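Why do we care about 3D structure at all? Because function follows from shape, and shape follows, mostly, from sequence. That is the central idea of this module. The next example makes it concrete: a single protein chain, its amino acid sequence, and then its structure expressed as tokens.
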Amino acid sequence: MEKIADDALSPEAMVMVSGSSIGTQRKYYNKGYWYKQNRNGYEGRAEYLASVVLSCSNIDDYVEYECCKINGKDGCRSFNFLRDGESYISLQRLYDIYHGGQLSERIRIYDSVAERIDYVVAFTENCTGINIREYLGRLLTFDMLIVNVDRHFNNIGILVNSNAGQYRTAPVFDNGNALLSDLGRYDHEDSLAGNIEKATGHPFCANLERQALELGFGLRINYPALQEKLEREPDSRALAVLHMQLRRYESILKDDNVQN
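And the structure:
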């Protein structure tokens, strides 16, 4: 995909968004779009490729990203996913409202991944009436596939329409720290497979595959449709990582009947 034209954004459009386990990333909001500048490598390309994968999956609620330049620097942009009257409440914010403190610390009192997941699912359902187990299963299987090391309780959340008193799970978003995009963390001298083995995940345990397995590998992908789209993409390390991971998990994820 070709990059869209360079967007010149004023300092007034900047929004500093914290809460990531990787760190604060420079973001802008302008005319209905969120913009994110690359910070550690090629996050924008990773976001874009992640949304290409989702377009051929059984996840139909996701944020579509496109690569762009922001004041001369590489990054990406996405349209604001909130509907009229909606607000985004992260699971961390939800926990803070009802209990205070860090949800990530609260679940550490449980030894097993299953118990940690059960606590978060029950807590969220008690607060909102929504059972997020299936949502988490798809989300964390996706993170396993794209090697997303930055899934935390600030980018897993609920959308609430306070006027209607309705809740729904948020779309899948914030996948930039995937596909070995952090050039400071993953050495170019090492192999892709070696770097993937170094990846440590969140939020329930460091092993991306283990937490996805606990939730039942909920993601399914139409491989022929995705391969057709990926054939049009220029060669890059991000694309090479994605192809490697698709081959690795094909027996688990492939479902050519998926329609998004």
